[in-house]
Structure formats: structure tokens, C-alpha cells
Predict the 3D structure of the following.
Amino acid sequence: MKKYIVALSVFIVLYICAIYGVQTYTSIKPAGTPPESIFAKLKEKQPLPDIIAGDIPPVQTTPLKQEEDINIIPKVQDLKEQQTQDTVSEEQKDSQSDADRDKLFEEKGLVNAETLPAAIFLDIRYATENNFTGKPLYKSDKCYLQKDTAQALAAAAQYALDEEKTFYLCIYDCYRPVSAQKALWKVYPVPGQVADPKTGSNHNRGTAVDLGPCNAEGYPLPMPTEFDDFTEDAYAYANSEDIPPEAIANRKALQKVMRKAGFTTIRKEWWHFNYKDAKQYPLLDLEF
């Protein structure tokens, strides 16, 4: 009986110790702090094995990384050099292409406006998506015109600089291939606002230019409407209450310098100007 009581007492004592130990090492800790482990504490007290003390040489990670860097750097440099060569090659190709195009156009009497002694800005809309078709119609953003038309444009640009309120000319369109004329007609076949490609436009001859006034930084000055607007406010002499006086004044100044240079306006587009004797030139379909 005594042995039974003693054994029972020992069992109870061991059970209480076990419960206490579990509660001590599994208690919940503040957020972000891992609970302590009795096993971790026991490991901390164990001596380090002799094998860690230096029997095994440390892993040589640094030299390997340096070796990798040495191998990578030339590859990166080679890649950059190749990209530079590709860029130079593309620029040379574009330059050669522009030169060939200029030569071809010159044979037809058209000159590149960038060669003119004139302070003008180019914003060739049909070479971008910023036009009423919503897609580019030209592969190049150049302005080509018949020689006499180009010379008149240069004169108009100088007249604009001589005005009391100086302004510059921003060019939206010059020579236009017949194929592009067909694309415009397909989207908006309205005579008087888009020329029927069967009869052609003076743009197809290189004797018409679309432009507007801008400041010395190339930003457009206020005008009655945007370029290629098909409302009545876009008419050359529109004077509705919706048009600010400043816009009408700018339109008048533009018409003044263009007429002085020999251009004429058309009724429904404030931006369009024809040069004289346009019918003597043929309709052209030179892609650019």
C-alpha cells in the first residue's frame, strides 16, 4: 500500500512539472515575436562540434562571384556596343533614305522645306495618328513643295517675323500623295472639305500648304478651331460668337502674311493656302 501511495505521489509530481514546463515554453508572445522553444535553449547550451572549428575550409563564394562578374562585364559591354552600332546603322540608313527621297522628289520639281532659309516648325499631322483618320498616312514627317511654292512659303515666314506682333509658321501638311488623298476621301467623302481624288487636290501637286501661327517655341497660337475641323467655325471668314477675338486676330494676321507672299485662301479651311498657277503641275503619287 505504501509503495502504491509513493508511486502515485511521484506520478503526480512529474505530471505537475510537465504541465508547468509546457506552459512556460508555449506561452503566446506579442505579435511578430516567435515563441521560445525549450529545444532551442537546449541547443544553445551544446558545445560546437570540432568539425565546425576549422576542419573544413570555408566556402569560397567571393572569388566565384568576382569571376562571374569578370565574365559578365564584357558581355554587357559587347551588348551596349552592338546596340550603339545598331542605332548608328539605323540613323545612317534613315539619312540615306532621306537623301534618296529628296533626290527623287527634286526630279519632280519638289524641294524639302527643311532646306529653306526660313524659320518654320513642322508638325506634319498625316505622319501621325493626330488627324481625323486616326492613323498615320505618311511614313515620313517631311514637307515637300514645288520650288516656287516653297520660296513663297519662306517669304511668308519672314513676313510673319516682320509683323508688329511677331509669330512663326507651323506646317501641318504640304505635298500629299494621291494614295493618301484616297485614304482621306474614304473616311470623309465630302466635296469642299476633302478633295475627290479623281480630280485631285493642290496638295497632290505640291502647290498647297496647311499651316497655322505659333510662338517661338512652336506652340500654336489660339485659332478659331483645331486643324481639320469640319464645323463652320473653321471657315476662313467665320465670325461666330463662339470664336474669341484673339483667335480672329491671329487668323487675320496669318492670312495677311500668306497673301503678301502670293497665296490664296479657300472658303472652308482657315489653315489651307494655295499658291498661284497650281494647275500647271501634275498630280503626283510619290510615296514618302
Residues 61-107 form the longest helix (47 residues). Residues 19-56 have pLDDT under 50 and may be disordered. The CA atoms of residues 153 and 180 lie 23 Å apart.
